[in-house]
UniProtKB/TrEMBL annotation:
One of its GO terms (biological process) is methylation. The keyword Amino-acid biosynthesis does not apply. One of its GO terms (molecular function) is methyltransferase activity. SUPFAM superfamilies: S-adenosyl-L-methionine-dependent methyltransferases. Keywords: Methyltransferase, Transferase. This is SAM-dependent methyltransferase. It comes from the Bacteria. Gene3D superfamilies: S-adenosyl-L-methionine-dependent methyltransferases (2.20.25.110), Vaccinia Virus protein VP39 (3.40.50.150). InterPro entries: SAM-dependent_MTases_sf (IPR029063).
Amino acid sequence: MPIPHPVPAARPTLAESADRHRLYECAVQNPRSEVDFIDRTYRQLRGRSARWLREDFCGTAAVCCEWVRRRKTNRALGVDLDPVVLDWGRCHNLAALPASQRARVQLLEQDVATAASRPLDLVLAMNFSYWLLAGRAALRAYFAQVRAALAPDGVFLLDAYGGYDAYRRIIEERPVDDPELGRFAYQWEQALYDPISGRLVCYIHFNFADGSRLERAFTYDWRLWSLPEIRELLTEAGFSRVLVYWQGWDPDGRPDGHFQPVATGEPDAGWIAYLSAEP
């Protein structure tokens, strides 16, 4: 009687073996460019370099880690409610730092609305993370908490996006090449927008060369806040000056990645802007 041979186990697909946090950092974040911007902006506003930074909704704390790489005097505090993503950041991003830099980063599993810290030079709320706060009272209270956490010459930096495509159900895809992960596709889906409540539901998907797909790797249930609303709420929370930084264009008509303070913007299909708020 022939001896049956074991059936080899199927190899996992690229989607099954993918690390969604690593994919996100590769496709969405650019901590080096972001820290370039916040470092330069603080010096322009205050005439000196910042030292103490708090990254709210910090996720994997990639920006915190980049911050302490810049100068030996820099210190970073990351705040997030998700213990899973904080643990990922500790294991992958903090663990990759030399001990001297790692000692200057602290990650806290706390609500940003109540997080306490020493007086700070900079507080960040990037990647539209504060849009999780869907009501005016909640967002104003968060902004007031940030103002209270800042040193007298501190600066709050945040970002926003908009344009007429922001109100549509759309799917956008672009290829990503990474030395470690290879080539894959990042897909951004705006699945729902309610013009009455301002509710916006978005997903991030990833597609791979073997035909597999990581569906809804990330889900965002947000309020789509407009720049006038954000500026008004910052002022109501006690900030004395709010500036909007708009992106320029290269000779081919594409965004050039350079942001400058402006008084008016362009009614583009899609735009990303930074804001600075000073006590």
